[in-house]
Structure formats: structure tokens, C-alpha cells
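residues and backbone:
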Amino acid sequence: MAKIKIIHDVEACIGCGACASVCPDNWEMKGAKSKPKKTEVADIGCNQEAADVCPVQCIKIKKA
């Protein structure tokens, strides 16, 4: 099974928490910014939704 890589541009992140709201399984707020709990997953799950709701588009999903 192909791995899914989650790329998070921390510098661009504005810390709105949208990703953590729609995907609490893999996203959490750490201080003023969000952070993925895992950067490689076997199943995309809610991570695509997290990327889609990000107002600054700082989350990218790539198939590894």
C-alpha cells in the first residue's frame, strides 16, 4: 500500500485551527500553530479535508 506524505508549511500556518477541527485524529494545535501528529500515513483519512479547509493552503498531501 502506498504511503501518504503530509507536508505542512509551518511558516505559512496562521494557527486558525481549521485542520485540527476537521481532522483531530492527525492534527493538533501546538502553541500558536497546528501540527500533524504523523507526517506519513497509510490511509489519507481526514487529512485531505484538513488540507482543503486550510485558508492559507499550507497543507499538501503527496503519495509517496
Notes: The first helix runs from residue 18 to 22. The chain has two helices and five strands. The mean pLDDT is 95.
